[in-house]
């Protein structure tokens, strides 16, 4: 996978939102954490929109007509529950006519502390020959994203897929680079961190995005 965009490499307000979701002094405000993920999703949507196909349409105004270049097709927006919901909402705020898909996944731990990613359920329209945008806030090992993508392919073959993560590990990016076709997928990330712990948590990362957004789970 050679099509990788790291938005945090450019100076913009985007990095203000990234810094706040990382900041332990701000993370205690779940509402602000969710809203920042949502705003990050909106920026991703705007940047992705620049790569899509457009067509000329005539719009009637009260005083005449205007020729506008508008999206030729709406994407299908997919996310992995539960942490992906605020990021998904940000994408949906901009691609507000898009269809939606949801995937449940979890880490199934063994006694030795190792784990496998289990896909539990998928709710999705057909994605055949459509643009797919698959979002998950954290790209740690890359396995969850790759498995979710494979799961989505049971609903059809998209014309192209955009994978979106806010914080990625270098290892996760390399995993996707070696396991997904660059002609079929483009990766969009906010920031890249170099370290991944033995328990597959990104360092410095930000912690558990789902817990920070919706409360600690048992």
Structure description:
With 218 residues, this protein is an alpha/beta fold. The protein contains 6 helices and 12 strands. Helix 4 links the parallel strand 8 and strand 9 (160-169). It is globular and about 70 Å long.
Strand-helix topology:
Layout: E1 4-6, H1 14-22, H2 30-49, E2 54-61, E3 64-71, E4 76-81, H3 85-94, E5 99-109, E6 115-123, E7 131-135, E8 138-139, H4 143-152, E9 160-169, H5 170-179, E10 185-193, E11 195-196, E12 202-203, H6 209-214
Parallel strand pairs: 1-10, 4-5, 4-7, 7-9, 8-9, 9-10
Antiparallel strand pairs: 2-3, 5-6, 11-12
Helix pairs in contact: 1-2, 2-3
SS strand fraction = 25-35%
Gyration radius over CA? 18 Å
- Choose one word for the global shape: globular
The amount of helix comes to: 25-40%
Biggest beta sheet attributes: 8 strands, mixed
Number of helices: 6
Averaged pLDDT = 94
Structural class: alpha/beta
Elements, N to C (H/E): EHHEEEHEEEEHEHEEEH
Uncertain segments: none
Give me the count of strands: 12
Distance between the termini: 36 Å
List keywords for this structure.
single chain; 8-stranded mixed β-sheet; alpha/beta; about 220 residues
Short description:
The chain is about 30% helix and about 35% strand. With about 220 residues, it is an alpha/beta fold. The strands form 3 sheets. Strands 1, 4, 5, 6, 7, 8, 9 and 10 form an 8-stranded mixed sheet that branches. The chain has a two-stranded antiparallel ribbon with strand order 2-3. Strands 11-12 form a two-stranded antiparallel sheet.
């Amino acid at each position: 996978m050679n099509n990788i965009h790291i938005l945090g490499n450019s100076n913009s307000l985007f990095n203000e939102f990234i810094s706040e979701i990382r900041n332990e002094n701000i993370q205690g405000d779940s509402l602000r954490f969710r809203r920042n993920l949502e705003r990050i999703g909106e920026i991703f949507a705007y940047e992705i929109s620049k790569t899509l196909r457009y067509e000329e349409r005539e719009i009637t105004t009260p005083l005449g007509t205007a020729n506008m270049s508008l999206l030729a097709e709406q994407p299908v927006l997919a996310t992995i529950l539960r942490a992906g919901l605020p990021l998904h909402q940000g994408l949906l705020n901009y691609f507000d006519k898009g269809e939606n898909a949801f995937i449940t996944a979890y880490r199934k731990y063994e006694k030795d502390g190792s784990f496998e990613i289990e896909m539990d359920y998928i709710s999705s329209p057909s994605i055949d020959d459509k643009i797919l945008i698959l979002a998950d806030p954290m790209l740690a090992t890359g396995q969850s994203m790759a498995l979710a993508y494979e799961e989505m392919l049971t609903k059809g073959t998209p014309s192209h897929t955009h994978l979106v993560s806010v914080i990625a590990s270098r290892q996760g990016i390399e995993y996707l680079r070696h396991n997904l076709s660059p002609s079929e997928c483009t990766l969009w990330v906010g920031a890249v961190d170099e370290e991944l712990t033995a328990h597959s948590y990104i360092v410095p990362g930000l912690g558990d995005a789902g817990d920070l957004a919706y409360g600690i789970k048992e």
